[in-house]
Design brief:
- The chain has 230 residues and is α/β, with parallel strands linked by helices.
- It is globular.
- Strand 2, helix 2 and strand 3 form a beta-alpha-beta unit.
- Helix 1 packs across helix 6.
- A 5-stranded parallel sheet has the order 3-2-1-4-5, sandwiched between helices.
- 35% of the residues lie in helices and 11% in strands.
Length: 230
């Protein structure tokens, strides 16, 4: 494959959505700089997965930034005093306690800075507004608004061609995401989705993210490679 589309920054969590987005960006010809964050998440095992996914996915560079937004608290993903919900219905109207305040806004801001420095004009994010847990920063309106801000607040936005915030999964079901990634050769056994894994890295099987993942594989008709806790 010829890398003739320039560079792109890809937000890479180590989960199946971001792994699929990396594969899409590579298929579209971009030289990808993968960007992950150690933000105090209780599921830090995803960073090990992100490293493996970046290598397998052909990223030209993988950066992991320390970003202590978890010190603010307010989320079950960063505050051990708040339990990760297990077995609740997903897809409701309420924003769940696993929402991390302003996470995607902060992540995209860091990606924007890196993109401007690295000469990348495209930023990829695995936001999804169909089969997801109800996070407000995964909606199309947010992606559109951030792109507007990015092109108001940067030198490249004012003097150059500007930035594109690309969310290719935004309107896809989890099953469609998995089918797309499988067709692009994504090794989903390298990815981790669980919000509350065991010390050995086994998925809990009951959190929203685990259940959405299992549901997606079932609907896609693709074998689920996840190792779950007994």
């Amino acid at each position: 494959m010829a890398d003739n589309a320039g560079k792109a920054v890809v937000l890479l969590s180590g989960g199946l959505d971001s792994a699929t987005v990396l594969a899409i960006a590579r298929q579209q010809g971009y030289q990808c700089i993968a960007l992950s964050f150690d933000y105090g998440q209780r599921h830090r095992i995803e960073l090990s997965s992100a490293k493996q996914v970046a290598i397998a996915g052909g990223a030209i560079e993988h950066r992991v930034l320390n970003l202590p937004i978890g010190e603010l608290g307010g989320s079950a993903l960063t505050d051990t005093a708040i339990d990760v919900p297990n077995g609740n219905d997903f897809g409701g109207d309420d924003i769940p306690v696993t929402y991390v305040p302003a996470r995607n806004t902060i992540f995209l801001s860091m990606a924007l800075g890196l993109a401007e420095i690295a000469g990348a004009r495209n930023i990829y994010i695995g936001a999804n507004a169909v089969d997801y847990s109800g996070y407000p920063d995964c909606r199309p309106e947010f992606i559109s608004a951030f792109q507007h801000v990015a092109n108001l607040a940067t030198r490249e936005g004012v003097e150059g061609d500007g930035f594109q915030i690309r969310a290719p999964l935004i309107d896809m079901s989890k099953a469609d995401i998995i089918r797309t990634g499988a067709a692009l050769g994504v090794d989903y056994s390298l990815t981790v989705s669980c919000y509350n894994p065991s010390e050995k890295g086994l998925a809990c099987g009951g959190c929203d993210s685990c259940r959405l993942r299992a549901y997606g594989f079932e609907m896609a008709g693709v074998a689920d490679p996840t190792s779950y806790q007994p």
